Amino acid sequence: MSPPRPSLDPQGYYARLGLTPDATKDAIHTAYRAKARVLHPDVPATGDAAAFMLVKQAYDVLSHAPERAAYDQEARRAAMAAIEPEVFVATPIHVAPRRPEPPLARPPRVSDMPLPVWLALGLLLALGVTQVISHLRSVETPQQHRQIPATAAPVAPLSATAHQEALYGPQPKSLPGTANSYVTPGSAAMIYQLQPDLKTLVPSTPLPPFSSVEALRVFRQSGMAEIVTGERTTGFVLAQHLAPGNRQAAHQAYCAYNAGRAPADGEILQRNAVGAATLRVENHAVQPAVLRLRTQAGATAVAVFLSPGGHADLTRLPAGDLQPEFAIGELWSRACNSFAAGMRAWRLRTPARVPGGTPLIVVDENGNPDALPLTDDAFERP
After folding, report:
1. Domain presence at residue 95
2. CB 325 within 8 A of CB 282
3. Distance between CA atoms of 341 and 290, rounded to whole angstroms?
4. Do residues 375 and 350 touch, judged by C-beta distance below 8 A?
5. In CATH, what number is assigned to the domain containing residue 203?
6. Is there a single domain that holds both residue 227 and residue 281?
7. Cα Rg of the chain (Å, integer)
8. Residues 238 and 328 in one domain
9. Secondary structure element (H or E) that encloses residue 228, with its range
10. Across 31-90, where does the E strand assignment appear?
11. How crowded is residue 340: how many other Cβ atoms within 10 Å of its Cβ?
């Protein structure tokens, strides 16, 4: 019996990300973002610093091509060394004497087919030719096709809000009051109103996931929570649909839940201006970064994602001065145009000259005295 095959994942790095050693680079990035979305210490309810550090340790090795190659090569070398060559014993084979083969018969010829077969083939050929001619006569000419009137009604393009809702569901609401709870994902909470007779609750308005509310009290017998719905009005929702957290926590939870596919290094996230200039950008921070270049009018010319130590050569930029803004953090959210965890944003005082002879470098707040702090809302605006 052969010994058990050694593991190709001796340190368990692939297992921590839920992958196999043949996983692609994109699969490694996607798995890490999915794990970070749940385990990052800044994520409410599910954050686990110890588990997140183990996942990040595995990601740091597997996402870096030279380190991953060294890890895989060492695992394969250990596996080959642990497999002992099997010993095969030759067994004599008795070969029976060969019998003389009978003479080959003459292969059949087309001329050997009987007359009824020839008649059937001729009939099938004539039928096929007839079908082809009939089809060619029935094909519409381009002129006939142009005469057919269009019946489909024109469809207007979706607005930005409608497009966002089509991708990520209804936008969360923010009810009056001081928010201390928000609607959990995977459920649509319904606001119930109390009938004048004070005996019946009737459904009134649905609340999309991640909507923030002020919960006043919970009735344990019914499981209903009383929430503020207006300046002097209240309603009721099932307490099981609520999680504790203010508006910022609700927004971060929405961004993490709808993060989407992890961007690749150098991926263009947004482009609103086009030109013929180029500019090289580099990320010297230890976390992922998103660099946004704005025009003099404040609109985003281009936004690009940069992995730690990554770079990109931006092309098709408008020439002139562009205002650089950048943010660093973890778990970039395509739904929010921001990082879902630990985001910090800055604006550089000095505009970037495009085209530029030197690269535009992104560093953290401690390494760039030219950077001014920027609010998350200011960075997220298009």
Report:
1. no
2. no
3. 14
4. no
5. 2.30.30
6. no
7. 34
8. no
9. strand 224-228
10. none
11. 27
Give the end of a domain, one of 254, 277, 302: 254
- 278 with 370, same domain: the answer is yes
Q: What is the DSSP string of 107-153?
A: PP-GGGS-HHHHHHHHHHHHHHHHHHHHHHHHSPPHHHHHTSPP-SP
* Structural domain containing residue 219: 169-254
Look at residue 367 in the predicted model and tell me its pLDDT: 66
| Overall domain count for the chain | 3
> What's residue 104's pLDDT?
63
Are 172 and 183 within 8 A, CB to CB? Answer: yes
**Domain termination site, one of 29, 59, 81:** 81
- Beta-ladder partners of 327: 290, 345
Please check whether residues 250 and 272 belong to one and the same domain. Answer: no
Q: Judging by DSSP bridges, how do beta strands 189-194 and 289-294 pair with one another?
A: unpaired
pLDDT at 2 (0 to 100) = 46
DSSP one-letter code for 376 = H
How many residues are listed for the chain in this entry? 382
Name the residue type at position 101. E
Q: What is the pLDDT of residue 1?
A: 45
In a domain? residue 97: no
Query: Residue 63 contacts by C-beta under 8 Å, 6 or more apart in sequence?
Result: 25, 28, 29, 32, 307
Between CA 380 and CA 164 the distance in angstroms is 15
For position 103, what pLDDT does the model report?
Answer: 63
Residues 280 and 355 in one domain: yes
Q: Tell me what pLDDT residue 109 has.
A: 72
Whether pTM exceeds 0.85: no
pLDDT of residue 4: 47
Q: Is 321 helix (H, G, I), strand (E, B) or coil?
A: strand
Q: Per-block average pLDDT, block size 10, for the chain (382 residues)?
A: 61 90 92 90 87 92 91 86 55 58 66 82 89 77 59 72 81 91 85 81 90 91 88 89 91 90 92 88 89 89 92 90 90 89 87 84 75 86 82
